[in-house]
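Residues pack. One example:


***
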Amino acid sequence: MHLRPSRSQLALLLRAQQWPDLETAAQDLLQHFPASSFMLRMSVAGQRQAIGSLPPHIMAEFGDEADPVSRHIGASGIPLEWDTATLCADGEAAPVYQSLRGAGIVSGLSMAARSDLGWSRIDFYFHQDADKGATADLFLLGSYLHEAACRVWRASWPAEVPRLTARERQCLQWSASGKTSQEIGQILGISQHTVYFHLKKVASKFKVYGTRHAISRAMDLKLIRPI
């Protein structure tokens, strides 16, 4: 039977200031669970960060292959329990699952966590059949991990204010006022596709997901006028 961690123990993750600190804190918490190791891969505006306690050569094997696990968590908020034997027998599974099996991992639990900043794939790995009673606690641990990762990511943002071009600022200001991309294009005399391009560029500069969050960030920095 696993020892359920308290909320105060889980909250220790939120104190991490850097990625190595978060990685160590997460691995320390795993002693309360039947999982032997974990991995978190976070994506923010096209940039990625991965931490975990798998051997480095296995961590390096994870890519963007459209295997059954990644397809599931990309489309569903429901965590997926899987076993390496079944995945290795599936011709669509990524080669990394063969490496996991070779490392003695018999099963795993994968989940996706999303926020206004970006999204994370979080995996927990088991060297023996998992205690089904522990999976709900792992979902909670995964949620704390994602929130902690968001805080570390934000803390790593450069202190300087991102520079917006005049056109990017115009597109963002009109979007903040409620105009659609088509309407903005008509106002500025540019195509709707070009408006999309500028707004996507702004979101990338702010390292956020989507125009709505870029507007909020720009207002906080006083780069555009409040609505």
